[in-house]
Amino acid sequence: MGCIARPAKGSSMYDLVIANGTVATAADVYRADVGIKDGVIVALGRGLTGAAETIDAAGRYVLPGGIDSHVHIAQPSGEGIVMADDFESGTRSALFGGNTTVLPFCIQEKGEALRTALTDYHAKAAGNCYTDVSFHLVISDPSEAVLGQELPAAVADGYTSFKIFMTYEALRLNDAEILATMDTARRTGALVMVHCENEDAIRFLVDKFTGEGHLEPRTHATTRPVVVEREATHRAISLAEVVDVPVVIVHVSNGAAMEEIARARARGRPIVGETCPQYLMLTEDDLSGMDWEGAKFVCSPPPRDKAEQTNIWRGIETGIFDLFSSDHCPFRYDDDRGKLNPKGRNDFRHIPNGIPGVETRLSILFSEGVMKGRIDLPRFVAMTATNHAKTYGLYPRKGTIAVGSDADIAIWDPDAERVIRHAELHDAADYSPYEGIAVRGRPETMILRGKVMVRDGALVGEKGYGAYLPRGLSDRAKPPTE
Ligand code: DUC
Ligand code: ZN
Ligand code: ZN
């Protein structure tokens, strides 16, 4: 049964009522109508009448729009490489996947002023978004000016989180730089996200394996084993303890890194853990595909093995992970400027790192998690929306269904069955790493700040309705000793 819209006559108490659905938040699942006025939820109750439009959501779940707090869109990606998605295609794909807000990364190139990076990135997003967006910064050059003035000014302007890297020559910070950058987070109340892989250990392994003639995509995984992630996770957590700041450990791929998080929490350290669909659904064997097809799965940290998939499920079930994000980082496969660029088609070191996934994240967790009984609906909502809003200073405006919150709503048909086919997705890549996976449950109608953007699977909203969101400081960024 589809959702039916019924315009009412005369003046209206509500612009829109979503009637007869099952509402789920991170805390509850209950039957209620949702009344919306001026883009905001103004009523929750039974039998709401007096709406300009009513959507009948009988047999449907009415969920907060997904928030994907880890996506890469239109990001500079090195000489000759172009990221597949711009803000138009990336946010359109996100919307069809059940999201109403995404948080991409604004990268500071070495030597670049943060304000320049932000101005350039805003220019790419302005007028092009189908979802709301808000930027994390990436700090690659923590100079005195950046840590002393530029970063504090950016935090005051609502850029309240930033990512740092322990890998990639062009981005990595050494331990002294990590400490200094974390200290700025402590002073300003910003939240630090860390990509944990030990660059020197990776370099050692890359030299060893390429020296033995291994240039195929699979070697990407071989040269980034669990131990390099575990060591860096331990170090990031330890450095955060020295400075006394909370930290987000992003894209955790394995049980050993999860144990570092669990041990630190047992000591009272505030650690936010994030994982992603690739660590549930893919393995390193996918990087061994024929004809260089393994390049489609090259991302960092790499997918692991079946035992690690089980570990990641345990982390989702037991609360090690607060956040389930896509790490959407799309490059076209069969493209001179993508995975099969002239150097990348012969040598894994030149295959751009990252895979698409913003449109499939929610369906995968809904199908594999909720429909298979591994997690309940409130946990699904928490991991895909509410915790993202709480972690990154958007709660309670975003991430929940409550009176006063933005009317960002995804109406899900829990019984819809389909097989993931890239041909039916809305990004600008040319493949999905999840091609052929059967999923149950589909976000069929999407509402952003009260406006229907997707109705019964068809785009009806306009590009440019998505807005930029300055963010407040997050409670989760507070030093534990304060
Ligand atoms: N880190 C990410 O967060 N995304 C893609 C590649 C990477 O290294
Ligand atoms: Zn990363
Ligand atoms: Zn990422």
UniProtKB/TrEMBL annotation:
Q: What does this protein do?
A: Catalyzes the stereospecific hydrolysis of the cyclic amide bond of D-hydantoin derivatives.
Q: Which Gene Ontology cellular component annotation is one that this UniProt entry carries?
A: cytosol
Residues carrying N6-carboxylysine: 163
Which parts of the chain span the membrane according to its record?
Answer: none
Cited Gene3D superfamilies:
Metal-dependent hydrolases, Urease, subunit C, domain 1
Any idea which GO molecular function terms this record carries?
hydrolase activity, acting on carbon-nitrogen (but not peptide) bonds, in cyclic amides; metal ion binding
Domain (Urease alpha-subunit N-terminal): residue spans on this chain: 10-47
| InterPro entries, per the entry | Amidohydro-rel, Hydantoinase/dihydroPyrase, Metal-dep_hydrolase_composite, Metal_Hydrolase, Metallo-dep_Hydrolases_sf, Urease_alpha_N_dom
Q: Which UniProt keywords apply?
A: Hydrolase, Metal-binding, Phosphoprotein
**PTM comment text:** Carbamylation allows a single lysine to coordinate two divalent metal cations.
Q: Which organism is it from?
A: Acuticoccus mangrovi
Q: Which PANTHER family match?
A: COLLAPSIN RESPONSE MEDIATOR PROTEIN, HYDRANTOINASE/DIHYDROPYRIMIDINASE FAMILY MEMBER
| Record-annotated Amidohydrolase-related domain positions | 61-452
Q: Which cofactor does it need?
A: Zn(2+)
Pfam families, alphabetized: Amidohydro_1, Urease_alpha
The protein's name: D-hydantoinase
Q: State the similarity comment.
A: Belongs to the metallo-dependent hydrolases superfamily. Hydantoinase/dihydropyrimidinase family.
